[in-house]
Amino acid sequence: MAFAQTPSHSLPGAFLHTPAVASRYSAQQDPVRRRLFQPNSNPNAQAAVPFGRDQGLGFNAPIQPAEEQGVRGLQNQNMPLMPPMPPLPPLAKASAYINNALAKDSEYPQLDSYCRQISSDYDLTRDDSPWAPFQKTNMYPIPQNVLEQFNRAEVTTMMGLFAELNHAWVTVDNCLYLWDYTHPNPELIGYEDSETGITAVKLVAPKPGIFNKVITHILVVATSADMFLLGVAAKVAPSGAKAIELYGTRMTMNLRGTDAHVIAGSAGGRIFFAGVSDNEIYELMYQQEEKWFANRTGKLQHSQRPWLVTVPNPKYMLWGRAATEHIVDIVVDDSRNLLYSLSNTSTVRTYHMEAPNKLTKVIEKTRDDFLRDIAHVLSVTSPLLNDRTEIVSISPISAIEDSKVHLMALTNTGCRLFMSATSAASYMLNSSSQAPQSMQLQCIKFPPSEQQRPRTSRFGGPIEYPDIQSRALERSRRGIRFAPGYFLDFVTKTDQHNTDLLFVSAPDSGRINHSRQTQSMRFYEQANWIEIGSKAEDIGLVTKPFAATSQPQGFGNELAVQFDEPSGSEFAILTNTGIHLVRRRRLVDIFASAIRAAAGDEGVKAEVSKFRGAYGHVETITAALAVACRQGDNGRSGLGRGAIDQATQDRAKQVYINFGGNPRLPEQDGQPATVEMVQPSTRHSALTLYLSRLVRKIWRSNVIKVGTDAGGAMVIASVVPTGKLKDAQGSVESLRSFLDANRSFIQGLSGPADLQRAGSKQEELGFQAEHQAMRAVETLMTGITEGISFVTTLFEERVTDIFARLDETSRQQLRDLTYEQLFSQDSGKELAKVLVKAIVNRNIENGSNVETVADALRRKCGSFCSPDDVVIFKAQEQLKRASEPSLNPNTSRTLLHESLRLFQKVAKSLTQANLESAIEQYISLRYYAGAIQLCLVVASEKDRGNAALSWINDGKPAGDPRAKLFDERKVCYGLIHHVLQDLDAASSREPEMIDGKLTLIATKRAEAYDVVSASIDEVFHSDLYEWYLEQGWTDRLLHIESPYVTSFLSRLAAQDPQHADLLCRFYTMRKQYFLAAKVQMELAQSEFPISIKDRLTLLSKAKTNASVTTTGVSRQEQQLLNHDVTELLEVAHIQDDLLERLRVDPRIPPERKQEVEEVLDGKIQPLSELFNGYADQAGYYDLCLLIYHVADFRNSTTITQTWNSLIEQVHDEVMAKWTTYNAEGRHGGQSDPPAYPYEELVGKIQDICHRSSNDSFIFPVPTLLPEICKYSYENAQDRRSNADVNWPVIVFLNLGVSYDLVLRVLEQMFEAQEVPFRGASRVRIIEWIVHVASSWVRELNRSGRPEARLDVWVGDLMLECENWLSTNSRIDNPGGADVRDITRAVKEIRRAVDGLVLSPVASRSMGFY
How much is the pTM? Predict the structure, then answer.
C-alpha cells in the first residue's frame, strides 16, 4: 500500500508561502534566513512563480530550470530584482529584446570549446526521415554533347566542378570544355589550343592589378609540357544564371622537367602546384609585362635552393620518375597565411606564406607522428587507427571559424583528426613571426556506430563512452569539410568498387548550444547517407561560405542565420552520370517535416517534446512560429521556396499558441511586484528571437555608404542590397499578418480577455506585462516595415541630391545611421523626417505636387510622414510660393496667411527646426505678426494644460517636471524676441509717417504689437516682460496697458526690491496711490536686505501716497492704511534711533554691536523686542516713552517712573560732561562748554512731546509738571545756573499746554505744600503762578476779543498768593526774583485779572487747549 509522502518541517522563510521573521539585517547577516543551499553564482537563478495552472506534460508544459534562465536572458540578462528598473518606452523595450536576442546568438561557442578529446556523438537518420539533416534536391545529367566528346578520348579524361560559378568541366586529352550544368541544354565553352595532354585544371583568384577588371577568376591549366593561364569573366544574368567567358592572357610557363597534377591558389592570387614525380611545391609567378630580367611567367621552387630549379633532378636522370613520395593534395588557409600539403605517405607539411613570394616550411608531421598523438589521446587501442591507417584528405579551418583548431585530416577508416597548431612567438614579447611551429592532435571524431544506440543512458543522462570500433565509414576514399563543420565523405564499400556512398554530417548547433545550458558541451552531429549511384569525381560549395559572425565566437550558429539564406548551404557533387545537388536542411525545415509526418495530436506532442529535449523550449517555439509564418520545407519536391501546406501551418500555429507558456514573476523577497519584474512567456521570447533573426543582417548595418565614381563624383549606395531589404520586409510583414490573424488566440495580444482569466493579482500583473511586451514587439515590427519602405523610397530618389541638401550635422548623422536607430530610436526617426522633408522639397522644386509626393510617402512609411507632415509640407509650399519676387503684394500676403493657417493647424507636430525655418522666412518677408502668432500657438500646444503658469505661480520650485514644459515654451518665446528685435531694427531705419499717413513698416509694427497685446498667454507676457527688463526697457514696460503687467510686477515684487519699486512707479503713473502705498508698506516689512533708513524712506513715501485720495478706494480703507503706515513709521523711527545710539554706546562690546546692527539695520522688529531687548536694557528712557506711546501703553505709574528716570539720567549725563569739561579747563583745554542740565532736559521733553503727538498719557502734565518743578528747584536750575527761573512752566506753555491747566497744577502744588515746596519755598510756586497768569492776561489782551474772560478762581488764586506774601515779606528766594518784586507783580496781575473776570461760573479745561 502506498502512502503519501510526509512533508518535512519547513523553516520560516525557506519556502515561498511561509512567512518569515521580518529581517532587521541584510541578506548576508540575517540569522533567521539560514543558507539552506550553496549560493548560486548566477544572478538570474531566481525561483519563479508560474502563472499557468496546467503544468502537466501537455500543451503548456514547463521548461527545464536551467533552460528557463537561458530563455529569460533574452529579455532580462542580469536583471536585478532591486531596485526596480523604470519602465521603458515600447520601442526602447523592443529594441532591448532584439539586442539581447542577437547577443545570445553571438554567444554560440567556438569550435575549440566542444571539439575536444574523442567523440562519436551522431544522430544518424535515413535520408527520407523528417529529421534528415541533408537532402538531395536535384540531379543534373551530363549533357549529350559532353558525352560525345568523352567518346572521342584517346589518352586521358578528367572532370571537375566550378561550383561557385554553376559550371562543370571536362578534359578530353588536350581539350578543355566547360558548361553550365544548371541549364537544360547548355552551350559548351571549349579551349582546344593546347598541344599536349591536360593533367590538371584549377580555378583561382587573380592577383590585384594584373588583369582587366572584367576578369573575375583565373583558370590555371597544366599540361605535360607547360602551364598557362586563361582569364575568366563571370557574369550573373537577371534570371540568376551565371555565364562565363574565357580570355587568353598570353601567360604560359614551360614546366622544364617537372609535372603538375595538383594546383592550389591563395586569395591574393598566388598559384602553387606539385606533381607526381617529386615531393616539391612550386609556385607559378606571373606579372603584367615582361621586364629586363624577368619574363611574364616563371617557376619558383620553394622546397629546394633556387639554382636547382634550372638543373634537372639527378634522380630522374639515373632512376627515371619512380619517386617514392609525392604530393596528392594542397590546401590554403588564407586567414592564417598557411599552406598545407598531403603526400601519398600520409605526411602533412605546413608552410607559412609571406609576401611577395616567400613560402617557408614550418611543420612536418608524418604518419608516425599522428599515431603517436593518437596514442596519447586514446586510452585503449582502436582498430581504426593503426599503422595501416592512411590520411586521404585534409581540410583547413580558418582563424575566423576557430582560433585554435587549424586543420582536419580524414583517414581511410573515416576518422576525422582535428589538429591545432601553436607558435612559440605567442609566448615571446615583441615577436613579429606568426608562423606556427608545432601541431598537436585536438580531437578525434570517430564514425557513427554501425548499430543504432540510444541517445541517453538508463539513468536519463547522455551516453558518455564513444564507439571507437565502428567501421561504418570504411573505406573512405575522399572527404572534405566546409565551414562550420559540414562534412562530406565518399565511402567505397568492398562489394561496390565502382560506386560511392555519400556520408554527410554537420554539427547539431542547436543541440550543442542548448547542452551548454544544462550540461557540459559535446560534439553532437547530425548525419545521414545519400546514394549518388556512381563514382564521385569532384565536389564544390555552390552557395556562399557559411559565416554567422566574423569571429570564432558565434561563427557556427546555424540557427541564427537560417532565415538569412532560405536555401541553406548547397553542395554540388560531380559523378560520371551527372551533378547531384545536396542541401543542408535548416531546423525550421526539419520541424515542418516532423510535425507534418506526425500522426495526430499525440504525434505532434511527441515531436514537440523531442524537439524541446534536444533544442530547448524557445528554439522549438521559434521554429513553430517560423513554420506558421510559411517558412520551412525548402527543397521539398513539388513545392516552391518558402511554400508550405496549410495543414502543417495550422499545426505549427497550434504549437506556438498552446506550447508558448505563461509569463513568470520571480520571487520578490518582500518587495512589491511591478510589471517590470515580470519575465515574459516563452511565446514572447520566441517571437523576439524569430524577429531578431529576420533582421540580424541589417539591424546593426549602416544604411548608406559614401564613395566616389571613376570621375571623382560622389556616389551614395545602400550598404544592404535592396533585394535583401525587401526579403526582410516581406518576412516581417508575414509575421505581422500571422499575429493579426490570430490575435484573439495569442496570449498577450487578446487584450482584456487575458485579464479575465487571471485568478490572482500576480497573474493579472503577469498578463499586463505580457501584453506590454507583445505590443512593444508589434510596434517595432511596424517601425521595421516602414523603415525599410523609407530606405527603398530614399534610393528610388536621387539620394545624392538629397544628401547635398542636408546640413553638415545631418550628413554625418546619415553616414552614421544604422537600421537599429532608424527602426527604434528617436534620433533615427527624427533624421528620417529631415530626409522626408528634403525629398519633398526636392520634388517641389522639380515641379511635383506636394500632396502627391507626401501621400505616397505616408502610405509607405506613415510614422515618418504623418498626416500632420503632409500639412506642414503644404504650408512650406505656400510659404515658398509667397517668397517668389514676381508675385504682387496682395497675392503674397494671401499665401502667407494660408501658410500661417496650415502651420497653426499642425502646431503640435511642428519640430523646432520647422518652426525656426518658418519664422526666418516670415521675418525675411516682413510678416512679423504671423511669425509672432505662430510662435504663440506652438507654445500653447506644447503645454495645453498650462502647467507652466502654475509652476510660475508656485515660485518656480526646482526639480519640478513642469519646468520642462516652461523651457519648451520659452524656446518659442525666444523666437518672438528675435522677431521683435528685427522689427524694431527695421522700423528704426524708416520713418513712421509720410504725408500724414503711416508707412508700411509702421503698419506692420502696429499689427505685430497688437498680436502681442491681444495674447491671453500669461506665461508669454511674463517672459516678454522679463526680456524687457533684461534689455533695460523699463519705460516700455511701464507704459504697457495690460492686466498681465500688474500680476508680473506683483510676482517679481515679492522677489526683488527693485521690481517692487518698479511696481510702485507703475501704480503712481496711473494715479493708483493707494496700491502704491500698500506695495511700499509691504516692501518696508519684507525680508529683503533693506536698511532701516531705506525702510523709513519707503514708509514716508507710503504715508504720502496713503494721504492722497485714490479713485475707487473708500475713505475708510484709505484711513486704515494711513493709520497702519503711520504706526509702522513710528516703530521704524524708534528702531533707527536705537540703532544709532547703540552704534556709539561705549558699553556695548564690538562683537555684540555687529549682532545688533544685523538685527536692527534690517527688518522692522516688534515693539516688545525693541523695548525688552534693547531700549529698556540700555536705559534709553526717552525711547521707552515713545514705545509706550506707539504701543498704547497707559500705566501711569510706569510712565511716571520712566520720566523720573529720564530726568535723573539727563541730569547725571550733563553733570558728567561738566566734570569732564572742568577737568579739561584746569589742564588748559579749549573745548566749548557743554549745555546746562535744564537745556538738555527741555530738549528731551520737547522731542518726546512732539513724537508722541502730545499724548496726555505719555505726557501727563499734572504729574510731570510737579516733577520738573521739583527738579528745577532742588538742582538749582534757575538763576544760579544762568537759567530763566520760569523755564519749567515756559516749556509746557511752549508745547501748547493751556494756561488754565498749568495754573491749576501750580495751584495744587501751592496748596499741597509738599517737599520741597514748604514754608518759604512756596514763593517759587507763586513766582511761576505770576509768570503764567501774566502770560495768560497778555494773551487775552492781545487777542482783543470781548468774550475773552477769566474764571473767578484765577482771581481767588491771585488773592491767596497776595495774602501769603503779605504775611511772609521777609523771606528769601534763592535763584529767583526778589520777594518784593514778586509782591508788586502779584498785585498788578490781580487787578488785571479782576478786570477780566466775567462771572463766577467757568468752564475749566484739563486738556492742552
Answer: 0.68
